[in-house]
């Protein structure tokens, strides 16, 4: 395998657990976000390819980075994003940080504690939110902190939903060792058809951490200047809260914890509509917005 394209899984933005550049996003912003997504998807597929050695994964990821920055040959997975960044005058920083996360995945399959997992999320999830905010020209000082909290929660929720599949398919475990030991659970429990009581307790504790992070990120939609992006973030936030609450009581090894299409749409639209209704009052709700552009 000589290119990242050969490692592609075929997964696209409509296959993700949360909306990616939905039609709530203005058309002028959807293109760069989708270019970013498919570049990142290519890197993620490299990291998850069980047929590649860690060294080969790193080489392919380095090739993607060099193609994006112009230090190496062009790559079809990098070219669209490179054009979008040039058109917007944006640096490649966020995309390169995600490649750093995939390099971690190539060599690291276990996490000792929450801090290690949060560090991974800083590179595997946080840059996504920051890139979307940058594309929309939002104020980093006002929005990054709450965005970071939401993105970290989204990543951990995905890890919890897929904890059995990740263990069985790529021998990767994102549940911290300390939390497993605290509840008397073992890594091998992830290979069972049903979660043990100890593993259920681990999942519930991490789901509660996600709810705490989502509470930190709750103000973000009202801090966003772009109305359509505000609605998109509100929808994602609401979907994440419901998933995290579900993980408090449900077993992802034996039960479906993903949203069905109808529930997904109704929940997202309800959250977006509520946020839209709040827009005229947002400056009264958040002192940080006083003096911000209308």
TrEMBL record:
SUPFAM superfamilies: Terpenoid synthases (SSF48576). InterPro entries: HSQ_synthase_HpnC (IPR017827), Isoprenoid_synthase_dom_sf (IPR008949), Squ/phyt_synthse (IPR002060), Trans_IPPS_bact-type (IPR044843), Trans_IPPS_HH (IPR033904). GO terms for biological process: terpenoid biosynthetic process. GO terms for molecular function: geranylgeranyl diphosphate synthase activity; squalene synthase [NAD(P)H] activity. This is Squalene synthase HpnC. It comes from Methylobacterium terrae. The gene is hpnC.
